[in-house]
Specification:
- The complex is a heterotetramer, with two copies of chain A (129 residues) and two copies of chain B (81 residues).
- Chain A is an alpha+beta fold and 129 residues long.
- Chain A has one domain: Molybdopterin biosynthesis MoaE subunit (Aldehyde Oxidoreductase, domain 3).
- Chain A is built from three helices and nine strands, in the order βαββββαβββαβ.
- With 81 residues, chain B is of the alpha+beta class.
- Chain B has one domain: Ubiquitin-like (UB roll).
- Chain B is built from three helices and five strands; from the N terminus they run E-H-E-H-H-E-E-E.
- In chain B, strands 2-1-5-3-4 form a five-stranded mixed sheet.
- Classes of the chains: A alpha+beta (129), B alpha+beta (81).
- Chains in contact: A-B, A-C, C-D.
C-alpha cells in the first residue's frame, strides 16, 4: 500500500492533489474527505483554529493506523495531509484520499482512518476568536 | 536515571512548562513519575482521568517501567481533523 | 439542499470541480467519490465502458434520491456528474460531492446516494474490448 | 388506446427494436402489455424476472393500469457508476 503523509503549515491545494492522482487499472474507487474549519466552536463564533502537533508521534500513530488498514482492506494507496498552525474558517485542515478496487472498502477504510486518527494521533486545536 | 517529560496542548499552561527533566530511581514506572508531577502541579492532577501518556512515540499505561533516557509525553485527548 | 446534477459526454474535470466548491461557514465536511472505469470486467480485459442512459428518468430518479437524503441528513449541497457514452479505463465515470456540517452524515449520505443509484437510476454499461 | 414502448440496453437487441407503439383496450395493465410483447419476443420473455418497468419516469408494477398516451420503458437491471 502506498502511503503519503504530509504535515504542513501551507494551505492544502486540493485541486492540485486531485490532479496528481495515480492509480493502476485494477482500481475503481477513490474516496476523498476534506475536513473544513467551521465558523463556530462550542457555540462561539471563531475566525480560525490553531493546530499543534507532536510531529514524530503523529507520523508513528498514522503509520500504525495505515498498518491496520493494509491488513483489513485492499487499499492501493492513501494520501493524507493535515495542516498545522493557523487554519482559517472555510479552509480544509485535513484532506484524505483512499484508492481501492471497489467503493465499499474505500468508504470503510477512509472512515476508519479518520475515526482512529481522532482517538490516537497527537494533534490538538485551539479555537481563535 | 534521567527522564525527559514533555507537556502538550493546554497541559503546558496547566504546568507552566513545555518540558522538564526528572530524576527517578531505576525501575520507576510511569505511575511513579505521574505521582511526583501531580504533587507538584495540582492543576495537572485534576486532569489525571483524561491524561494521555506516551513513552517515546507509543502510548503506554501507568504500570509501564521507565528506562534511563526515556521521553515521556503527557497530553489531553487528541483533536485532529 | 443545493442540487447539481450533470450528465455529460465530456471528461469529468475533478480539479476544476473541487476548485468550484462553495460552502457556508457552518459546513465542516466534504466527501467526494470518484468511480473509475477498471481495466477488467467479469475477468476480461477491457479498454472502455460505453454508458447509455434514459436521461429524463435518470434526472427524475436522482431527484427522488436527493429528496430522501434531504429528509434524512443535514446536507447543504450535492453535486453529481455521470458520464455517458464512451469512458476509457482509468477515467472517472461518476463524481459525487456531499457537503455537511460533520463527517459522519457526509459519508452516510454519499454512500446512500451511490447505493440507491445502483438500484434505481436507469443507466447501463457495455464493456468494450 | 395507443401505448408507446421503449426498450433500453440489451433489451433493444433481444427485441431488435428501440421503440414501438401498441394498441391496447382501455383499462389494460402493464401485465397485459408485457404478455403481448413476450408472446411476440420469446427472448424478452426469458428475462421477465429481471425486467424493470417504468411508466413515464416512474417505476410501476405489473398491475399498474395504463392510460392512453403512456410511455412504457422496459429494461434490464441498472448499472450506473
Amino acid at each position: 500500500m502506498k502511503r503519503q503523509l504530509t504535515l504542513t503549515r501551507d494551505p492544502i491545494d486540493e485541486p492540485a492533489l486531485v490532479s496528481q492522482r495515480a492509480l493502476t487499472a485494477e482500481m475503481g474507487a477513490a474516496v476523498y474527505f476534506s475536513g473544513i474549519v467551521r465558523g463556530t466552536e462550542d457555540g462561539a463564533t471563531i475566525s480560525a483554529i490553531e493546530y499543534e502537533a507532536f510531529t514524530p508521534m503523529v507520523e508513528r500513530q498514522f503509520n500504525l493506523i495505515f498498518d491496520q488498514i493494509e491488513k483489513r482492506w485492499p487499499v492501493e494507496g492513501i494520501r493524507l495531509i493535515h495542516r498545522l498552525g493557523l487554519v482559517k474558517v472555510n479552509e480544509p485542515s485535513l484532506w484524505v484520499e483512499v484508492i481501492t478496487p471497489h467503493r465499499a472498502e474505500a468508504f470503510a477504510a477512509c472512515q476508519f482512518l479518520i475515526d482512529e486518527m481522532k482517538k490516537t494521533v497527537p494533534i490538538w486545536k485551539k479555537p481563535l476568536a | 536515571m534521567t527522564i525527559r517529560v514533555q507537556f502538550w496542548s493546554y497541559f503546558k499552561e496547566l504546568t507552566g512548562c513545555a518540558h522538564l527533566t526528572e530524576e527517578l530511581p531505576e525501575g520507576s514506572t510511569v505511575d511513579e513519575l505521574l505521582k511526583r508531577l501531580h504533587a507538584r502541579h495540582p492543576k495537572l492532577a485534576a486532569f489525571q482521568n483524561s491524561t494521555f501518556i506516551a513513552v517515546g512515540l507509543d502510548y503506554q499505561g501507568r504500570s509501564h517501567v521507565l528506562r534511563a533516557g526515556d521521553e515521556v509525553s503527557l497530553f489531553p485527548p487528541v483533536q485532529g481533523g
